[in-house]
Amino acid sequence: MARFARIVRFAFLACALPLAGGAAWASDAPSRELGGARADAYRERACRLRYRRIESGTEITGHGTAFAADLAAYGFEGRRYLLSAAHNVLDDAGQPYRTLEIETGGGWSACRVLAHDRSLDICLLEAQRELPEAAQLADTDAAQGDAVILAGAKRGQAVRVYEGVLEKKFHRGSARYRVRVPFDHGDSGGPFFDAASGRVVGVAVAGVPLGADLDPGMGLYAPLAAVRSFLDAHRRGGSPLPEPSRPEPAPGAIAASAEVRQAPAPTALATREVPVTLSAAVVLAQEVAPATPAVLAAQSNSAPRIEVAQSTAEIRLPEMPAAAAGSADAAPEVRSTEPAPAHPKLYRIRYGDTLSQIAEKLGVRMQALMEANNIRDPNCIAAETILRVP
Q1: C-alpha angle 86/90/93, rounded to 5°?
Q2: Quick one: pLDDT band at residue 371, thresholds 50, 70, 90?
């Protein structure tokens, strides 16, 4: 009888696997290093990334991985544009390292950061030289249980290739996917490929903590939806990117690159504080009040100027109550090179948000929110994505 039970159990498992699409269960899925010509095809699309910094008088070299991607659809032509993990290229203050280098066929060469998102842990780099190969982004996301391939430079060594299985689409409430694959320091920033199509489905961003280090058999990656959301936010025209201009601020001016708050003026010229969120460098001019009473009176009725240094700046202001529209303490005039939308209603998705929660919070129907933002699957939204609120 026991033998018959074992035979029935084996037959049940043999029938169950094809119904699951032929993929092994994630907990039993093997992960292994690839070699030969198959590994070479993936290895050529990734490269080592490094930076140098001085810490306590000692030079330290940090390591990571990057890969060239075909980003022509986002305005970045050629094979000089790479994706990596943001923490590979930013110092503790969130500023890009000035000593970034990548390894190409001709040795090490300089590269620079064009854009980064610390929340998604993704960055876009531009290299001095083109890489031999550029990876293609996949059209669709990988499914749970699919075989995926990682190309990474563990601890700064030569790029190696590993095969594993996408185990879970969301890791502990975050937008990152968990994959069973050998993962170590230095693999961050490497491409994750769909084994069936050979196209990129994500960017390696972290390992799973285990004790005092990382689980050597588990990694996390930012999925395709996050990568495309990041690239959509930073797309540009096809012309070569010029060196970033840094205009000298006028005497008495304050330079800023993120959130700027109007500093309180002297008591005689006190105005209401107006938060202004900018996505480009700005210069906020502070006028020095003359000593004469007549000029002081005229100055109190004039609004401070905000000059935007880049034509692609995006300025968002809070809506002013109607009762305050004509009051003496109204918000200062803001001049931008682009006209602001008549009624901007936007929402930035935060980690842990669901579409139903967002719709309830904003007082709109979830279906209307999906139609306004061309969302097909309400369960597939990426943090930091901007939603239009109907």
Answers
A1: 130
A2: confident
